[in-house]
Amino acid sequence: MPKKILQRTTIAALLLVGGASAALALQPPELLRVGANYSAKIVCSNVFIAGRDAQAVLADDVQAPGHPLLKFLRVKVDKEKQTVSAKLLGLFGNGLAVYRPGTGCAVVPDGDVEQARRYQFTPEPIKPGAVDAPWPQGREADLSLVPLTALQQPELTGPGARAVVVIHKGQLVGSYYAQGYNDNTPLLGWSMTKTVTAALIGMLIKDGKLSMAHNGFWPGQSDPRHAITLAQLMSMSSGLEYNEGYGDVSDVTRMLYLEPDMASYTASKPLAHAPGSHWNYSSGTTVLLSRIWQRAAAGAGSATDAATLSFAHNRLFTPLGMRTAVLEADARGNLVGSSYMYASAQDWARFGQFLLQDGVWQGQRLLPEGYVRMMQQAAPASGGQYGQGQLWRWGPSGASSGGANPDAAFQLPADTYWMEGHDGQSITIIPSQELVVVRLGLTPSSLHYQPQALVAAILKALPVATLADKARARP
């Protein structure tokens, strides 16, 4: 090739690459923006809430299990401004997240950090329980009750397990923590947060500020969405159009990583089915529920002022002693009750025990009587797998369940119900056995891990006297 032609070709190639780079910098593709904002958010929360190392979080939590594109992302933490930025090759994507006291980290897709900072509060410190005080007031474990060798078996705790906590008859009887994690490490529950949202709604029902028959959440009676009830939203049967698919730019990834106001985005979705006629698992639905309870709690005030944003901390976390719990808000003050609560494994266990006790804690009824029982009842359109209160009646299905309850293969008691979250988070609650099992980690669904085997092994280790009624009918 003549030298001049080679030079022209090289210049043209450089101009093409330069032009592509400029285009990526000015207007990166949405998938790249999702990846960059996701990376910034995960690193932000783990640095400022959990106290972990930023590069370790990027490598272990973002890049190792994620989309190949994420391996080329770089993050920068500004400890003074309490922000995290993330970019592809350090140049493209413009991911940004900011930390706020009380409300954790928020993605800032519009770049307005100061607006996002407005939504915060100063939490009243929750006094830690003494190490030698009995659980749940303290952290003392009675390991003599049950020989839980299952917690030492990786095939049962599962790949990527970070914490397992076992509560039996209200006592801490066993725990496991991976290297680098302990009983004070806040861990992300992902969609287990949805059940916490249901509990907060229950508190406002007890206060007389909401009811399951409540509707009119969309203005104008001519809007067909006006008829959607709180009960239909709670059971994922609103009929709203929503795509919960991950791995691409879908409704859920757009909501979480491209929209500063997650609730308004979901509220804009049209009806795809008549309310109550179709079950569709939707994180957007739970973000709407968060906005509903925030407005109800605010009364005549603002749904995003400090008094409302601190409701979960003051009314739920403080009474239960969940001192590590943080429920995060988006960049417009919507608490992200679908996905973003951090808490230690023991604090997640306190919440599970709270449900097992029908919403009563230390003799005080915090939820309406029978409310937890209602939460467990099957959502009419779910085929039996999902409850009416943002929880699962069936555990994870692994590779396939063929449409049947996968718990049956492990002979779990009929009254077993679950809180479940992305990447292998679960809380198993079995009232007939007075058992709560928390399992947290980073276990992609592609590994088909099922915590039922762990729970079954724990059940076998329990004293025989507690196993008299394994087949008790579901309430």
Automatic annotation (TrEMBL):
SUPFAM superfamilies for this protein: beta-lactamase/transpeptidase-like (SSF56601)
Record has Cell cycle as a keyword: no
Residues in Beta-lactamase-related domain copies: 163-440
Keywords assigned by UniProt, alphabetized: Hydrolase, Signal
Residues spanning the signal sequence: 1-22
MF terms (GO), sorted A to Z: hydrolase activity
UniProt protein name: Serine hydrolase
Source lineage: Bacteria, Pseudomonadati, Pseudomonadota, Betaproteobacteria, Burkholderiales
